[in-house]
Amino acid sequence: MGVEHKQVIVLRKDLNMRKGKMVAQGAHASMRAILQLGHAAQGNFVIPLDTRIEPWLLGRFKKICVSVNSEAELLAVHDAARAAGLITALIQDAGLTEFGNVPTYTAVAVGPDREDRVDAITGGLPLL
Questions:
Q1: Do the strands 44-46 and 39-41 form a parallel or antiparallel pair, or are they unpaired?
Q2: What 3-state class would DSSP assign to 105?
Q3: Model confidence at 13, in pLDDT bands (50, 70, 90)?
Q4: Which of UniProt's keywords are assigned here (predicted)?
């Protein structure tokens, strides 16, 4: 069997988001990580497949959800993923339904990429 690929969604537990809000924020992160790689071309939206994206989109599509306990921890994960050259997407909620109209960082997607590369950044974080 080949190398496994995955994406990890990191969510802030300290915000005490409603379950639906937490799911939505994780979905935003996952989608942005992939869609930010695409572009419009002749009426289509094209996402170039590379060694990080293709095995994940056309294979097992593995996602894992983990948590952090602060904005500082969330931003540190995002920064570490970027520094490692991983696909990453940081989500800032507008605060319209929760968080008292204050824009708030809620989630980060790390990957997709090879499991070992993603785990180097997120492997120590607890499952959600």
A1: antiparallel
A2: strand
A3: very high
A4: Hydrolase
Instruction: Tell me whether residue 79 is exposed, middle or buried, using C-beta atoms within 10 angstroms of its C-beta: 0 to 12, 13 to 18, 19 or more.
Output: middle
Instruction: Kindly give the residue spans of alpha helices, DSSP state H, lying in 2-124.
Output: 19-35, 54-57, 71-83, 115-122
Task: Give burial (CB, 10 Å; 0-12/13-18/19+) of 110.
Answer: buried
Residue 127 burial by Cβ neighbours in a 10 Å radius (0-12, 13-18, 19+):
exposed
How do residues 37-62 score in pLDDT, each as one tens digit? Answer: 999 999 999 999 999 999 998 987 89
Question: Does residue 14 register a pLDDT over 80?
Answer: yes
Longest dimension (CA), the chain: 49
Domains belonging to the chain, first-starting first, are: 5-122 (3.40.1490.10)
**Considering only CA atoms, which of 2, 15, 14, 113 is closest in space to residue 64?**
113
Residue 1: predicted pLDDT: 52
